[in-house]
Amino acid sequence: MMETNQTISERGYQHFLLLDDHEIVRFGVKQMIRQEWPASKIYEAETFMEAERLLHDHDIQVMISDVKVPGLSPGESVSQIQRFANRLPVVVFTMYPRDLLDRQLDDQQIVAYICKNDGVEHLRDAMKHVMGKLPDWQPPHEEFHENPFAGLSAQELNIAVALVHGKTNAEICRKFDIRPSTVSTYKTRIYEKLGVSSYSEILKLAYTYGIDFNDVVESED
Predict the structure, then answer these.
(1) Could you tell me if 20 and 29 are in contact, meaning their C-beta atoms sit under 8 angstroms apart?
(2) Does domain 5-130 correspond to CATH entry 3.50.50.60?
(3) Residue ranges per domain, the chain?
(4) Cα radius of gyration rounded to whole Å, the chain
(5) Which residues does 118 contact at the CB level (< 8 Å), separation at least 6?
(6) Is residue 196 a contact partner of residue 202, using CB atoms and an 8 Å limit?
């Protein structure tokens, strides 16, 4: 059962779970946590499987998680975060713009969604809010743009990621367990919604809107 902010704030010894596959990011977040909460214990994970094991073995109060996890599409990562958020407070810390995943995040118990470009100081304040230290805290204002990827459904976004990686129709069929005709239907719909007509145009859009698709979907052998 999720503990209240008051219960967490009364503890002098906090346990944090940090899920991010980039060592340099984890290092920066750990430095911030140790400066703010010197007596804290920080557990690190690069995958949801590792995070699950740590959560089972330790009394963790707060989780900080990216939504870009190797081997998973954005939609799959969001589903995993939702599962964790039902058990403890989760602060998302990611490069993905909020509007890209807004549809999938609507029903989640996410305490805060912080973009890495905003800096660790906003992450620090979000964590203080979780622990009852900043009850009136508000997340940094995110300037929304007309991001065409935000108009895709969860499955369309997953397949768009696969397309950006240059996956073939056969690979997409295996990845998502769908028929070739269904892949063609999705591709047509995605192209129409994004207003593109080729792979290179989708790739250009990904760069234009700062969407990091590297290593999101792994090849299936």
Answers:
(1) yes
(2) no
(3) 5-130, 148-208
(4) 18
(5) 140
(6) yes
Tokens at residue 47, please? 């995958």
- Which sign, positive or negative, has the C-alpha torsion 94, 96, 102, 103? negative
In this structure, are strands 41-45 and 90-94 parallel, antiparallel, or unpaired?
unpaired
* pTM assigned to the model: 0.62
Distance between CA atoms of 117 and 8, rounded to whole angstroms? 28
Fold of 148-208: Arc Repressor Mutant, subunit A (1.10.10)
The pair of structure tokens assigned to 54 is 């740590």
Please give the Cα distance from 94 to 100 (Å, whole number).
12
pLDDT for position 101: 66
Cα 64 to Cα 39: distance, rounded to the nearest angstrom: 18
For residue 139, give the amino acid letter. Answer: P
Query: Roughly how many angstroms between the first and final C-alpha of the chain, as a whole number?
Result: 40
Q: pLDDT confidence of 33, banded at 50, 70, 90?
A: very high
What element of type H or E holds 94?
A: strand 90-94
Residue 173 exposure: Cα atoms within 13 Å on the Cβ side: 10
Nearest CA-CA partner of 151 in 209, 200, 65, 82: 209
